[in-house]
Design goal:
- The chain is an all-beta fold.
- The chain has one domain.
- The protein is 0% helix and 52% strand.
- Strands 1, 2, 3, 4, 5, 6 and 7 form a 7-stranded antiparallel β-sheet that branches.
- The radius of gyration is 14 Å and the shape is globular.
Amino acid sequence: MLSPSGTPPKLSQSLSIGTKDAKITYKLKGIIYLGGNHFTSRIVGSQGEVWYHDGIATKEKCLHEGKLNTIEDIHHVRDRTSCMTIYGIV
């Protein structure tokens, strides 16, 4: 996921769309990563906790990584690069 300048865009923990009177706020819920012809993901819980999932390596388990605001490089995980973000309505 690159911006026109070739650098990764800043990911916001939340974003709002609409007018001042009719605004909808969305919260970051997940990030999909691609690398080595394989997708992995980070899932963001309601309290900002982050879980890593790789169906090949972790099978049915998710690994707790900590809080979203403590992850240094949200665009990369285990040699994979973010390719999609998922937001949900608050």
